[in-house]
Amino acid sequence: MKRLFAVALGVLTAIGGFVDIGDLVTNAVVGSRFGMSLAWVVVVGVVGICLFANMSGRVAAVSGRATFEIIRERLGPRAGLANLGAGFFINLMTMAAEIGGIALAVQLITGIGPMLWMPLAAFAVWIVVWRAKFSQLENATGLLGLSLIVFAVAVVMLGPDWGELARQAVQPTVPAGEQPATYWYYAVALFGAAMTPYEVFFFSSGAVEEGWGPADLGTARLNVLVGFPLGGLLSLAIAASAAIVLLPQAIAVTSLSQVVLPVVTAGGTVAFCFLVVGMLAAFFGAALETTLSSGYTIAQYFGWSWGKFRRPSAAARFHLTMIIGLVLALGILATGVDPIQVTEYSVVFSAVALPLTYVPILIVANDADYMGDDVNGRAANFLGLVYLAIILVAALAAIPLMIVTGAGA
Amino acid sequence: MIRALAAAALVLALAGCTSLRSTVVDALDQAVSATSTATLAVHLTGAGRLLDPAADTTLADALTELEDAAATLVDAGPAAPGESAARRAALAAIRAATDAVLATRDDLSAGRDLAGDEADLRAARDALEALAAASGDPS
């Protein structure tokens, strides 16, 4: 019974924690401009994140060490530094986007501009990272994030033409008025949003925080293979709600306030309240994860003491790194840049950095010195290589597509 | 190798260049999106489905988009013969839409009835859509 509860809790938090501001905004933008014609990218992205999260979780559970620690040891300091630099930069952008997202969500219920809320949100993130236990912060935000299921409820309540939605998803075409290059730019952005590197850093470090061993592999696999695909369905619901309400009215999403309109159209103020709770939990949870990931990556690279399972005084540099990360993220937001734009750029740069994150994981997961008998099987390696090809294409195409399309304008 | 990279950079740079006509179409599309957003927000507020702070935020975001659309047109380079009139017409329509959203925001803040504002916003959006269609927007 206890094990069943642990699995259920893990799956639920995986669903609730799957969607962050990158997923929310990118899926809403795509739904409002391309309907469901990019749904296939969400499927490809979810399979990819399941594959690599499962791999990095296995590495952590078998070796007892986080993936990033092993990457530096296995590939050397130079390759590790490239991985660290790219990962930390993307993580910082994502952290800024999540904190900005919290501020924008609070603005929706107070009407007071986001600049006031950004430092408060960053302070709240720091307090929770400093004081709360790892399991508390993961479970609370993950479970509250389940409120985003209101998107799926809204889609049903809107009574769409299911056949038309399915046709758009199964027979994807570039809508009239959109350019093929823009379509592919958003395909790369959606892929980057689904496979954003911090999820893997957090997942593998979280495995060490929670003391996973080989006996926990089954539970971890269930969390990933059930929770993430259901989270992916949530992403599709976000795109579908925008496709049903916003696309016919020629509304192209550029702000968070537009993302809520389909849900409000379907369910009024009650649905709006669920949505705000879900968004706050999702953004706050992702802000915690990215803040922790900034500490994890730096501390693991330099071999410092790290982890929430240690008292802050026993992992001082780990905690200092997170504080510096939060200050830098606030600095980005203090320039007055639109958090939604930061989000859009962060998911595209995520796509650029994907090979630096996922190639090393594939290498380490095949190293018998660390993994013993639990190295990747043939199926995992075949899929891993297929995804490596996809990741390389996405990474190489991201910047040229950004220039050609004017960042998807 | 260096030549190939330079050629690729030139192609990308040229691809980034746009004509005034396409700039006008893009600005009008942006304005249509912003005005439609404001119209939907006002409709939902009038029906008691959207809370005032959320509606106010939506209108503020719509205003930012309209300002951005107008700035894009103002900042565009000199117009070729025949394009100047199109730009002026687009700017006038965007400014009319901006006025409609501003008036709506004032009425929302004052707690006044928004039925008239919704009609004004619809009229502003129709004008923008007509201009966009006349400018050759395929959508």
Walk me through this protein's architecture:
The complex is a heterodimer of chains A (409) and B (139). By secondary structure, chain A is an all-alpha fold. Chain A contains 17 helices and no strands. Chain A has helices spanning 2-18, 21-34, 39-63, 67-110, 114-131, 134-145, 150-157, 162-170, 180-194, 198-209, 217-245, 256-259, 261-302, 316-334, 339-365, 368-371, 378-405. In chain A, helix 1 crosses helix 6. The longest helix of chain A is centred in the N-terminal third of the chain and has 44 residues, at 67-110. Chain A is globular, with a radius of gyration of 20 Å. The termini of chain A are far apart. Chain B has 139 residues and is mainly α. Chain B has one domain: Four Helix Bundle (Hemerythrin (Met), subunit A). Classes of the chains: A mainly alpha (409), B mainly alpha (139).
The helical percent of chain B reads over 70%
Characterize the overall form of chain A. globular
Q: Which secondary-structure class do the elements of chain B indicate?
A: mainly alpha
Overall number of strands of chain A: 0
Distance between the termini of chain B: 41 Å
CATH-defined architecture of chain B: Up-down Bundle
Instruction: Give me the secondary-structure category of chain A.
Output: mainly alpha
Q: Top keywords for this entry?
A:
heterodimer; A: mainly alpha; B: mainly alpha; Four Helix Bundle (Hemerythrin (Met), subunit A)
Structure, briefly:
Chain A is mainly α and about 400 residues long. Chain A has 17 helices and no strands.
List the helices and strands and how they pair.
The complex is a heterodimer of chains A (409) and B (139).
Chain A: H1 2-18, H2 21-34, H3 39-63, H4 67-110, H5 114-131, H6 134-145, H7 150-157, H8 162-170, H9 180-194, H10 198-209, H11 217-245, H12 256-259, H13 261-302, H14 316-334, H15 339-365, H16 368-371, H17 378-405
Helix pairs in contact in A: 1-6, 1-11, 2-9, 2-11, 2-15, 3-9, 3-10, 3-11, 3-15, 3-17, 4-5, 4-10, 4-13, 4-14, 4-15, 5-13, 5-14, 6-13, 7-11, 7-13, 9-15, 9-17, 10-13, 11-13, 13-14, 15-17
Chain B: H1 2-16, H2 20-46, H3 52-75, H4 83-110, H5 115-134
Helix pairs in contact in B: 2-3, 2-4, 2-5, 3-4, 4-5
